[in-house]
Design a protein that fits this description.
This protein is of the alpha+beta class. Helices cover 26% and strands 21% of the residues. The longest helix has 9 residues. The N and C termini lie far apart (38 Å).
């Protein structure tokens, strides 16, 4: 699982210096299981094996976009397996009344 500061990645979608890039089906799943917060997930259009993660993202209210491969390659040229996520530098909690 590769993690690097997003400041090295040129994208209009994110500009936070503290956001971490995570990619790959199993890596994204591990981060979700660990309870980390994602700022956003990107799924490659027509990528195989991403549907279960899309369902989990919907259940957890994680913002996501389905994008063409060209957009995914703006983030990384490595084998992302059709999914890239940006983790939050902070963990969000539910507001209790």
């Amino acid at each position: 699982m590769e993690k690097r500061p997003i400041s090295r990645i040129k994208s209009a979608d994110f500009d936070s210096d503290n956001t971490t890039l995570v990619f790959g089906l199993h890596s994204i799943q591990e981060v979700m299981n660990a309870g980390k917060t994602f700022e956003k997930l990107f799924f490659q259009k027509n990528a195989q094996g991403t549907q279960p993660l899309i369902k989990i993202a919907e259940e957890l209210n994680i913002p996501y976009s389905i994008v063409p491969a060209e957009k995914m390659f703006q983030f990384t040229r490595k084998n992302h397996q059709g999914v890239i996520g940006f983790t939050s530098p902070i963990t969000y909690g539910d507001i209790q009344e």
